[in-house]
Write a structure and sequence with these properties.
Layout lengths: L2 H12 L16 E5 L2 E4 L4 E4 L2 H4 L8 H13 L12 H13 L4 E7 L2 H18 L7 E5 L8 H6 L16 E4 L13 H16 L4 E6 L15 H12 L2 E5 L23 E4 L11 E6 H8 L17 H16 L2 H17 L7 E6 L4 E8 L4 E2 L3 H11 L2 E2 L1 E3 L11 E4 L7 H18 L1
Parallel strand pairs: 3-14, 5-6, 5-7, 7-8, 8-9
Antiparallel strand pairs: 1-2, 2-3, 4-10, 9-10, 11-12, 12-13, 12-16, 15-16
Helix pairs in contact: 3-10, 4-10, 7-8, 11-13, 12-13
Length: 449
């Protein structure tokens, strides 16, 4: 047995993958190197990384600056606890840096190792805050259908994509979903932004504002199909949250660190959250890191707490010095290379390219913001009847042509939707490569149909 077949056999025998089924892994690609927007497998084939792996390799592959930052920090201090009474310079500097890049009402950051852990932490921050405010019954979390917030137990209960829940229920109590601001699938002629925000208010009134702690929202719904809200949605939602005393958690795990053409995405609509979870792009995936940024009022509740109400949330690797050092170097690259502004400009080019695919009868909707884009498939453009099953064939055809992308299976309604092809290339992806992505995607849709 040669080395490649031996490696593949060992992979099948000993490694359980995320979202694992043996049939899905029967023709697995084993990546061995990456450069810029390209990935190379063990058999020497090159692929365009059309999803930044998992929406996270913002600065591209093969950045020696990040490897060097990691090595320098490991040689100096590989790990130290950041529990109360201890700290380290990279964690301090990165917290200061991120707070400075975030919304004006933000005050401090708590570090985690990834997005699901960040959202779990955000839920605990919200409950902690209301207990400190003398309102211990405010524990419920509202999320939106098609939302993805991770698949640990509480995060999975806020996630509203049933495939992630079927084999792991029951859900954690006190999590409730409402309709999303999904313009293409909004019933009738009303404004999807106003209607979806009002659905949140209806849920608050139904459950009682004195029981609802927070609503969690992705500014652009990523894994659910790159659903971009109408401009009316977030301003209305912020007003509703303020009026009823409900915290707004922005899940910016995908949308943070330049992905949408701003450092953080709620700036597109001129509002600020009370809590913001982040991960992915903070290190461009080079090391695991995430966190929660808290507003000044929530930070004050922590800082002013009596000893018997201290913030007893913790993780061994919170504030890991090597991960934080890489986060600092990653932000340096984003700033030095102007990748936030580039994402805005190149995102328009990508979206314009995807718009040309509307001529294909299977393409129902094209949408995106910054370096996030999606194509939703339908059986009929006129009726918008969802196309189910074609997305997997498109992904396979794209793979044959050297493009990696991801599809979200439709049908998780209401509102029911078709298979959706999702794109999120690295922010530094060259123009010619973006154009090639569109060409391959168009060819793949035609072949799959």
């Amino acid at each position: 047995m040669n080395d490649l077949s031996s490696l593949f056999a060992a992979d099948q025998r000993h490694l359980i993958h995320p979202l694992h089924h043996p049939k899905d892994h029967a023709a697995a690609k084993i990546f061995v190197s990456g450069k810029g927007a390209m990935l190379t497998t063990d058999d020497g084939r090159e692929y365009i990384d059309g999803l930044s792996c998992l929406w996270n390799v913002n600065v591209g592959h093969g950045r020696k600056e990040l490897a060097e930052a990691s090595a320098r920090q490991m040689e100096k201090l590989g790990y130290a606890s950041a529990y109360a009474g201890f700290s380290n310079e990279p964690a301090i500097r990165l917290a200061e840096r991120i707070v400075g890049l975030a919304y004006d009402n933000m005050a401090a950051a708590y570090f985690t190792t990834g997005g699901a852990e960040s959202n779990e932490s955000a839920f605990k921050f919200a409950r902690y805050y209301w207990k400190r405010m003398g309102k211990p019954e405010k524990v419920k979390i509202i999320s939106r259908r098609y939302g993805y917030h991770g698949v640990t137990m509480a995060a999975m209960s806020a996630t509203s994509l049933p495939g992630y829940q079927k084999m792991f229920g029951p859900m954690v109590p006190n999590f409730h979903q409402v309709v999303p601001p999904y313009p293409y699938r909004w019933p009738g002629n009303g404004d999807a932004g106003i209607g979806a925000a009002d659905a949140v208010e209806e849920a608050i009134l139904e459950h009682g504002a004195d029981t609802v702690a927070a609503i969690i929202c992705e500014p652009v719904m990523g894994a659910g199909g790159v659903i971009v809200p109408p401009p009316t949605y977030f301003p209305r939602l912020r007003e509703i949250c303020d009026r009823h005393g409900v915290l707004l958690i922005a899940d910016e795990v995908i949308t943070g660190f330049g992905r949408t053409g701003r450092w953080f995405a709620l700036g597109h609509w001129g509002i600020e959250p009370d809590l913001m979870s982040f991960a992915k792009g903070v290190t461009s995936g080079y090391l695991p890191l995430g966190g929660v940024i808290v507003s000044k009022k929530i930070h004050a509740a922590i800082e002013d707490a009596p000893m018997d109400e201290k913030f007893m949330h913790a993780a061994t690797y919170s504030g890991h010095p090597v991960c934080c050092a890489v986060g600092l170097a990653n932000i340096d690259i984003i700033e030095k290379e102007g990748l936030v502004d580039r994402a805005a400009v190149m995102g328009k080019r990508l979206l314009a390219g995807l718009e040309t695919l509307r001529s294909h009868p299977s393409v129902g909707d094209v949408r995106g913001l910054g370096m996030l884009g999606a194509v939703e498939l339908v059986k009929d453009q006129g009726t918008r009847a969802p196309e189910l099953g074609m997305g997997g064939r498109v992904v396979a055809e794209a793979g044959k042509r050297g493009l990696i992308l991801r599809q979200r299976g439709g049908g998780d309604g209401p509102p029911a939707s078709g298979d959706t092809l999702c794109l999120a290339p690295p922010l530094m992806t060259p123009e010619a490569t973006l154009d090639r992505i569109v060409q391959i995607l168009g060819d793949s849709i035609a072949a799959a149909a």
